[in-house]
Amino acid sequence: MFTGIVECMGKVVEFTPLDTTAAGGNGASLAISEAREILGDCHLGDSIAINGTCLTVTEFSEDTFKVGLAPETLSRTNLGTLQAGDSVNLERALAAGHRFGGHFVQGHIDSTANIIEIKPEDNSIWYKLQVNDPKLMPYIIPKGFIAIDGTSLTVCDVNDDEHWFTIMMIAYTQTHVVMPTKKVGDRVNIEVDMLGKYVEKVTTSILRGSSDADGSSTSSYIEKVVEKVLQKNK
To answer: Burial letters for 140-153: b for 16+ Cβ neighbours within 10 Å, e otherwise?
Structure first.
């Protein structure tokens, strides 16, 4: 579990499509440097989020660490496009007893979004992003949470039909995350608020179970509930 409060920015040392070393595990791997700030208490097997993606440390030194990348991770995130020298957001898994400054972030990327507009306003920056998986739009709501490359941010505007949303980034955040290095057309990782998914899952199950019990459809069950409420309020 993470908070979306980026602890530091690291630098990509190397993305290896096929790492045959013990730490690479005969799969893709990613090596990150300039991470001394978060490696003082690191152990093999620890979780570190890179651009919002929860990954397992397979090797580390005082300043550098390596993680393995599964095919699922490469297909859902922008990590496979990283090149040596690119900056990345880094956050360790949340420790018990610490302040919780962002929101519940699992580090499980849902999809990516493309930056379609960048517009400064005073000392802040507006970003408009188009979601590459339209099925995620119901979970993106005005004033709701979203994690972009692992940064906890507040959604401003939402357009469900065109599959885009906006966020505004304050000056302090701009100096502590990788977003300001991005340009129009770049792809970022997004994770929607997991609480919305759980609410949908529970309510859908309840409605489906209720409709199955009397043989009616979910929509007709909702109509009955609405009708009862209206009658009660007469």
So the answer is: bbeebbbbbbbbbb
